[in-house]
Sequence to fold (301 residues):
Amino acid sequence: MAQACDMRTLIGLARIENADTRFFRPPPKLPPEETQDSIEDKLSTILSLLPTTDIDPCVRHYTKSAAKEAKKAAAGDKVQLSFGSQDVSFADTLSSTPNDVVELFCLQALASHSTIPSHCTEIVRLGGIPLLLRIYEKRKLNERIQVLIAMIIGNLALYEGLHKHIYQGGWVTILAHWIRSSNLKLKLHAARALANLDRDFGTRKYEKNIYLVYPEYRIDFTFYADVVFVHGLLGGPFKTWRQGLPVTERGDQLANIPSVSPVVHDTSSEMLDHDSKKYTECWPKVYCRTGYHLIFHTHEC
Fold:
């Protein structure tokens, strides 16, 4: 049955909370030609081929930061690659800085480019989807890299012409795993990406910096209103809505935080138990679930 699932069926199953995970087959193995070059070389090549003119300051900043970090990491002979302008270049040899650090900076630049519609098409054309799969498999324990990958896939999923590429690349299975994760960041990014992929259930699309908090799965219910949470200047979508900080970050200070008394009983992974006190990483989801769409809006440069 898993082999018989087409793209629309698999996306629908990924958005059903209690769907059997055996429907989600492992991502396909990459062909040899996709693994010949190093990840750092492939990332730098894609960045070098993306346009750098007529882009906003955030995209330019992250692109230059990636180039700067690569220069710092360069050792031995250097092969300079132009990013489309003389003031941005990339070094081919990256040995003095850990590879995951270079990948992190490059992925931040790629994530900023993925907010531009025409650049999304180019990222896919240049082999971005199989490259992201390589990085995903290599850096499964690196949360920051995993979150950046999820953000990029969510941005690509805004465009229906790219859905087939995402599906064929095995990303529906990965998103189905992430949406069931206890990691709030991965969970929200996956919920956004799957909602953008799911054109059979509703017409809403969640643009960049918009996160669907509830319901993250398909649900047969009439909603009365959208509730949009907008954090402050020093806040963020993954930290403003926590109930204080967990004991691992604040020691015994958590004891001073009152326990949560949600309107709807919730035993999901967002609720964590520390010393018999209820702690939540996302209190709006605990208090305000029934009858509303919950959406986070954030500005991330």
In short: The mean pLDDT is 77. Residues 57-73 form the longest helix (17 residues).
